[in-house]
Specification:
- The protein has 471 residues and is of the alpha/beta class.
- The chain has two domains: 129 residues, Leucine Aminopeptidase, subunit E, domain 1; 320 residues, Zn peptidases (Aminopeptidase, 3-Layer(aba) Sandwich), CATH 3.40.630.
- The chain is built from 16 helices and 19 strands.
- The strands form four sheets. Strands 7-8-10-9-13-17-14-15 form an eight-stranded mixed beta sheet, with helices on both faces.
- The longest helix is centred in the N-terminal third of the chain and has 18 residues.
- It is elongated, with a radius of gyration of 24 Å.
């Protein structure tokens, strides 16, 4: 887990005599006033270049009288962190900068800058270095969020030969150590006994499955403080099993542990903010492979809850990983269970790659997460747990099938499957996400992406960090 390398200590820079340049962030509405306040030479230069403060537009100004360089960033009408993501690679490599515009939220700008500076270069011999931004105390929340998201991005981007079930479990251990939490990693016969569906999914791989369980209590949390329980699907590679994916369908399956990465990032945010809660993170770490010992279509597996599941499709393995985790989490009677998974292509057909689907058995929690995601520009979209489709999961030989009897509403039926393992009285939120950026945008480089974690954190922070009534 690497640290943010796009920030610098301004005091150390001053002591070493390094020059720190200035960034002016300007919205379209404030452009005229900003231009009026510039020296004539710089004002004429911007006017000549046609600078209109469009979102993410970055222009280097002619040198000021003191020899330092200034840059101007256009914000357009965008009030999110995203425009600041344009800066790291628009400015000269490894130069040092600070934002001097009044009214700019330092946490927001730092978050955007750090997310825009991210590149997965760990396996390259050399790579272009970003410009660097001054680290200031007022931006700590933005730095914490950026670190958590970049940590998750690294995990998603790692190829499966370097991040198998054991390695992913050890990353949860490392996360626990960072925040003085406790972590247990379960494997072997104990896992087979207590998490039979996870064992069944992982049976086909020579790399055995793991369950990593992190436990943490906030410094201001009492013994009966609210319990927040997180569950993540950590399928490090998904071949589809005997229902083998086509080759094109496997090309991004290293990202099939994106739900685990999102829940790890959310756990990091909760711990960094020291929310007054008890936290449990469960990650099911497994590889879905083909072998003579792999689970087969029409096999019947007994779950941790005692329910039996007929395997209608071995490529619907993520719900099998989560169902045992949800059953165990619910036994502890948490205030809320949140799970995340790259679960269905149907959710992407319905909502596309950028908008995770949210399912919840509690309308208040559903509204809170949707609203929080909108506020912090980490959106999700609520879909229904439509009870009328529940019978599509019926099986003639088991308590239920892991896929529906037809091709309709795949994201809904997957969520309905998971709901079978959550009691009616238990608050539950399920996120079906894509965990990948198809192309590079301002603060979102192409590759692995941690979706929904910041929005979920905002909802948790609103509920638990302040003495608010129910939503």
């Amino acid at each position: 887990m690497r640290e943010l390398d796009c920030l610098f200590d301004p005091l150390a820079a001053a002591d070493s005599g390094q020059t720190v340049h200035r960034i002016h962030a300007v919205s379209a509405d404030d452009l005229a006033a900003f231009l009026a306040g510039l020296p004539p030479g710089q004002r004429d230069f911007l006017s000549f270049t046609g600078f209109a403060a469009k979102t993410g537009t970055t222009v280097l100004l002619p040198a000021a009288g003191d020899g330092s360089m200034d840059a101007v960033l256009g914000l357009g009408q965008d009030q999110s962190h995203a425009p600041f993501g344009a800066l790291p690679f628009a400015l000269p490599a490894e130069t040092l900068w600070k934002i001097v515009s009044p009214g700019i939220d330092p946490a927001l700008s730092t978050l955007g800058f750090c997310l825009g500076a991210y590149r997965f270069n760990a396996l390259k011999g050399s790579a272009t270095k970003p410009a660097r931004l001054a680290r200031i105390d007022a931006a700590q929340d933005g730095m914490d969020q950026a670190w958590a998201i970049c940590m998750g991005r690294d995990l998603i981007n790692l190829p499966a030969n370097l991040l198998g079930p054991d390695e992913l479990a050890q990353e949860v251990v490392t996360l626990a150590q960072r925040f003085a939490a406790v972590c247990d990693v379960i494997s072997g016969p104990v896992l087979t006994e207590n998490y039979p569906t996870i064992a069944a999914v992982g049976r086909g791989s020579v790399r055995g499955p793991r369950v990593a369980i992190l436990r943490w209590t906030g410094s201001k949390a009492s013994d009966d403080a609210p319990l927040v329980s997180l569950c993540g699907k950590g399928v490090c590679f998904d071949s589809g099993g005997y229902d083998l994916k086509p080759s094109a369908g496997m090309l991004r399956m290293k990202k099939d542990m994106g739900g685990a990465a999102a829940m790890m990032a959310l756990a990091a945010l909760v711990m960094a903010a020291d929310l007054p809660v008890r936290l449990v993170l469960r990650v099911g770490c497994v590889e879905n492979s083909v072998s003579g010992d792999a689970m087969r279509p029409l096999d019947v597996i007994r779950t941790r809850s005692g329910r039996t599941v007929e395997i209608g499709n071995t490529d619907a393995e993520g719900r099998l990983v989560l169902c045992d985790l949800l059953d165990e989490a619910g036994a502890e009677l948490p205030d809320i269970i949140i799970d995340a998974a790259t679960l269905t292509g149907a959710a992407r057909v319905a909502l596309g790659p950028d908008l995770p689907a949210l399912f919840s058995n509690n309308d208040d929690w559903s509204r809170a997460v949707v609203e929080a995601g909108t506020v912090v520009h980490d959106p999700v979209w609520a879909l229904p747990l439509w009870a009328g489709y529940d019978h599509w999961l019926d099986s003639p030989v088991a308590d239920l099938n892991n896929v529906s009897s037809n091709g309709f509403a795949g994201a809904i039926t997957a969520a309905l499957f998971l709901q079978r393992f959550v009691t009616l009285s238990q608050n539950w939120v399920h996120i079906d996400l894509y965990a990948w950026n198809e192309r590079t945008r301002l603060a979102s480089p192409e590759g692995g992406e941690v979706q929904a974690a910041r929005g979920l954190f905002q909802a948790l922070r609103k509920r638990y960090n302040f003495a608010l009534q129910a939503f």
